[in-house]
Amino acid sequence: MPVEYDRLNALLSDYTHNISRGGTFIRTDRPLGVGTMLSFTIRAPELGEPIVLRGVVRWVVDAEQARAGRTPGMGVAFVYDSPEHRAGLEARLDRLMVQSLGAAAFERLMGKPAPPGPA
User: Fold this and answer.
1) H or E stretch including 114?
2) How many domains does the chain have?
3) Which of 1, 26, 29, 79 is the most exposed place for a label (fewest CB within 10 A)?
4) Is residue 9, in this structure, part of any structural domain at all?
């Protein structure tokens, strides 16, 4: 899914892979440094309204590691404003997973009933 974020006052557009309840991997040839806080927006037709998130870069795959066959980018852990914010985002991500994987796969993977409704 496309993701947009600011870097040095420029709006960048890259792609997110492996999004989960705790964070995401943003594929980019220009990763931010570990410890960098960022705000980013995930957009996809199945989402309806975009998801606006904050996170901190926890790990990076740089150009040298990418030459060894890994995908370049950065692992970002989500930062939540409150327990309610976290619960709302996790519920939305659960619904997105159901749309992508189907209810049966979600239930096997997450060990709980699939939530109803759109992401």
Assistant:
1) none
2) 1
3) 29
4) yes
Q: What is the pLDDT of residues 79-100, one digit of tens each?
A: 999 999 899 888 888 887 888 7
Are the beta carbons of 15 and 5 closer than 8 angstroms? no
Concatenate the DSSP letters of all residues of 56-95 into one string: EEEEEE-HHHHHTTPPPEEEEEEE-SSHHHHHHHHHHHHH
Q: How far apart are CA 99 and CA 43, in angstroms?
A: 15
Look up the pTM and report it. 0.78
The predicted structure's pLDDT at residue 5: 83
Q: Does residue 16 sit within a domain?
A: yes
Q: How far apart are CA 86 and CA 47, in angstroms?
A: 17
